[in-house]
C-alpha cells in the first residue's frame, strides 16, 4: 500500500508517493537525497538520525514518513544558508567537535533546538539537552565548547 504525502523539507515543498512503511530516515536519504542525516542504531537510542519536525526533535529512524505528512522538516543540510554554515556547524568544525562526524548531524540539530529555546545555556543545560545523542569519538568536551561558542556568537549577532 502506498501513500501520497506532502512535506516541506528545508524550505522546499515535496509531494511524494511512498510505501506506507517507509521510514522518514529512508525518505530523506534515498528519496530526497539528503544524506546528512545518519542511521546509527536504528532503534532511536543514539540520536544520529535526529531531525526537526515542526519545531520538535524527532528520531527519523523510528518515524514513518506518513506520520509527518503536511509538516515542515529541517535536516542538517537545511541549517546552512547556501554555502554559509550555521554558527553551530562552523563552531563544530573550528573547535574540533567533529571526529568521524557520524553523530554530528543529530548533535547539531539538537543543539539548534536548544539554542532556539535558550539562547544563553549553561554547560549543564547543554549537557542535558544533548544527553540523548551518543558520540563514541570526541568525549563531548569539544562538542559542549562548540555549542557554547555558537550560542555566544549568535547572541552577539542578535544585538547588532
Automatic annotation (TrEMBL):
Keywords: 2Fe-2S, Iron, Iron-sulfur, Metal-binding, Oxidoreductase
Top-level taxon: Bacteria
Alphabetized InterPro entries for the sequence: 2Fe-2S-bd, 2Fe-2S-bd_dom_sf, 2Fe-2S_ferredoxin-like_sf, 2Fe-2S_ferredoxin-type, 2Fe2S_fd_BS, Beta-grasp_dom_sf, Diverse_Oxidoreductases
GO MF term list: 2 iron, 2 sulfur cluster binding; metal ion binding; oxidoreductase activity
Pfam families: Fer2, Fer2_2
Domain 2Fe-2S ferredoxin-type residues, every copy: 3-79
PANTHER family tied to this protein: OXIDOREDUCTASE WITH IRON-SULFUR SUBUNIT
Protein name: (2Fe-2S)-binding protein
